[in-house]
Amino acid sequence: xxxxxxxxxxxxxxxRKITKFNRKVTRKLEKERADANKDPALYTTQMKNPGNVVxxxxxxxxxxxxxxxxxxxxxxNFDIPRHSTVGVVGESGxxxxxxxxxxxxxxxxxxxxxxxxxxxxxRGDGSAYNIVNTPNSIMEKLRGNxxxxxxxxxxxxxxxxxxxxxxxxEVIELHNPNMSEPExxxxxxxxxxxxxxANKEGVYEMFPHELSGGMRQRICIAIALACSPKLIIADExxxxxxxxxQAQILDLLQNLKDRLSSSIMxxxxxxxxxxxxxxxxxxxxxxxxxxxxTAEEIFHHPAHxxxxxxxxxxxxxxQKVEELYNIPGSVPNPVAMPDYCYFRxxxxxxxxxxQGEYPxxxxxxxxxxxxxxxxxxxxxxxxxxxSVNVEELL
Length: 394
Ligand SMILES: Nc1ncnc2c1ncn2[C@@H]1O[C@H](COP(=O)(O)OP(=O)(O)OP(=O)(O)O)[C@@H](O)[C@H]1O
Ligand SMILES: [Mg+2]
What we know:
Layout: H1 12-38, H2 40-43, E1 44-46, E2 52-65, E3 68-81, E4 85-89, H3 96-104, E5 112-122, E6 127-130, H4 136-145, E7 147-150, H5 154-157, H6 164-175, H7 181-194, H8 200-204, H9 213-225, E8 231-235, H10 243-260, E9 263-268, H11 271-277, E10 280-285, E11 288-294, H12 295-300, H13 305-312, E12 361-363, E13 369-370, E14 380-383
Parallel strand pairs: 4-9, 4-10, 7-8, 8-9
Antiparallel strand pairs: 1-6, 2-3, 2-5, 5-6, 10-11, 11-13, 12-13, 12-14
């Protein structure tokens, strides 16, 4: 019986209570969303800085799961400036994909909900959509046309029973209903050429299984870029590929980004990938941004103990070490996060202030912001990440 007292144990009564609560909250949130969708004033807003494509402003995305509320993304703040590549890094489960899915409104609803904050997407004239409340009819136009996504595993992203040509044609037709059939095919061939496929006519007729992993990822990039989106979200685009192909794909992405004047949100846990490509880096830990800044700042002057730990745990070319550093301990339980700094129990630089509440964001240079009390007296505190009290949602 003593076993049952463990914090992870949920009794039948508690489980029923959680299910009832989840049903009530998600129903209410879905209803509120449907109401907000009807009124353009509730989903149109202004960009704080018109030079940004996207602004994440205290975004909270929670999953109302059977074991409790998982605060997957909790008070995330960062911007994606125009024509730039923003790398989002952090260990598995820290909320990178959920942040991007919130931006695409592709969360697994009704259990996954963005319950707080704003995601502003620039419409080009300084006005913006608040993606959190934007109706599906508008999202359908944004996805593919303005924001598109490249996934980790190209084989599962492509449909195995359709030819490559058909799959790219379909995207172009959907977003350009006035194009004639030959025009669509010409555009598809142009896209295949753009992503570096040599035998474009041949590949047009092939099925995904006939291509190598690198070629499949090129096809996925062609599909994602078919409508020249303003923002490309690349969620671990090279994890399934070997290092040489990885470098080619990253080069290709970077070139196409410049050619189309797009921005890239590059999600990865590989610091090497970010170092070579990103202009800005956002470091996430347990659903929160712990540090953000230019790539130069993050790689050469990391400030947060977690970022410093990540850097130390990365092998350096030409340097032989007996054993790579690993950050001790593990991420706190996502359904019961502490109210102090989430990294405190793993941190080797704890100070007296760390005994208090979660640290605020502290600006230590124009572009460099860190969420750690060690910089409290050296920088400008900007404010605490805003979490949502789920009980108040009812
Ligand atoms: N549908 C879901 N239901 C419940 N919890 C979820 C769901 N999807 C994601 N989560 C939780 O949200 C958290 C963040 O997940 P996310 O997929 O964003 O991680 P990630 O940073 O992308 O990790 P990885 O590097 O492994 O892709 C995790 O704790 C995960 O368990
Ligand atoms: Mg992910």
